Amino acid sequence: MTIGMTSLRYVRGFIDEVVTHGPGLKSLVINIDKLPVTVPGQFIMLWVPGYEEIPLSPSYHANGVIRLTIRERGPTTRKIHSMDVGEPVFLRGPYGTGFDLSRRARYLLVGGGYGAAPIIFAGHVLHKKGFESMYIEGVKSREYGLYTEEAGKLGMESMLVTEDGSSGYKGLVTEYVEKNIDGYDIVLGCGPEPMLNRLIEICLEHGVECQVSMERYIKCGVGICGSCILEGTGLLVCRDGPVFNARDLLEAGYEVGVDD
Ligand SMILES: Cc1cc2nc3c(=O)[nH]c(=O)nc-3n(C[C@H](O)[C@H](O)[C@H](O)COP(=O)(O)OP(=O)(O)OC[C@H]3O[C@@H](n4cnc5c(N)ncnc54)[C@H](O)[C@@H]3O)c2cc1C
Ligand code: FES
Which ligand lies nearest to the CA atom of residue 213 in the structure? Predict the structure, then answer.
């Protein structure tokens, strides 16, 4: 079934590699030929028979290989964390709007926790385009770090920001951004909502464009059920996002600083 140009059909893929990053954090590298290529920031729905399907924003996707970076939270992600090489998974998508990476500009890439997934994917695409960017990842402690090394291997400047100071810069990722934002044209952010709200404020203060990836409860993924509405805005995360330009969010009535 298709809605507009959006397919609701599942495509089967097979796990090719399982990477353990740190406590409760794994990536699955999946061979999947027939899934249309994802733009960084778009999401796919992953289904393992017997469990709920869940939205995930890939941390890489090219040439029939997709990488999903998953934090263990509840029944479905626990099941996914128990899976091994060779097992099948079912994906549909990609859905929604990804980051706008079309402009030759200096990009500051900011990921918090598993929000680093679409951010490092954006780093890969910007690197291929030859656009300048810096990668910043914020975590509680060094063992939760995901992709600063990978960003370094791409030749990008990168920084791990740890709350406990166990590696890199000690503090909140937004504090580091505030000190280093000058000279950048566009900030891309994905992570916990308080982090995104602060990023939006910093970008407004510095006159820098800001694109953020928002999370709400996604069921259909294609704009039908209304479960993912951003309160007070009329915007649907699955259809109008998950990546929004902060300017559009604010114009629609999104209130920075008001948590769920
Ligand atoms: C656009 C988008 C991209 C995401 N990308 C990633 C990613 O790359 N890596 C990652 O680890 N997680 C990602 N998530 C979150 C991930 O979907 C949830 O952690 C997962 O659905 C939890 O399922 P569960 O059954 O393990 O836990 P549950 O016990 O069912 O839920 C635990 C918590 O996860 C959230 N959640 C559960 N189901 C959904 C759902 N259908 N939609 C949104 N949130 C849900 C809720 O906050 C819930 O309280 C993304 C969410 C969205 C909306
Ligand atoms: S998840 Fe159904 S409208 Fe967004």
Answer: 1
190 Cα–ligand 1 center, Å: 14
- Cα–Cα distances in angstroms (integers) from residue 71 to residues 27, 113, 224, in the given order: 9, 9, 27
Q: Which atom of ligand 2 is nearest to the CA of 226?
A: 3
pLDDT in tens, 227-248: 999 999 999 999 999 999 999 9
User: Domains along the chain?
Assistant: 2-95 (2.40.30.10), 107-213 (3.40.50.80)
With a threshold of 0.85, does the pTM exceed it?
A: yes
Q: How far does residue 182's CA lie from ligand 1's centre (Å)?
A: 34
- How far does the centroid of ligand 1 lie from the alpha carbon of residue 54, in Å? 6
88 - beta bridge partners? 14
| 70-85 pLDDT per residue, tens | 999 999 999 999 999 9
Among the bound ligands, name the one nearest to the CA of residue 223.
Answer: 2
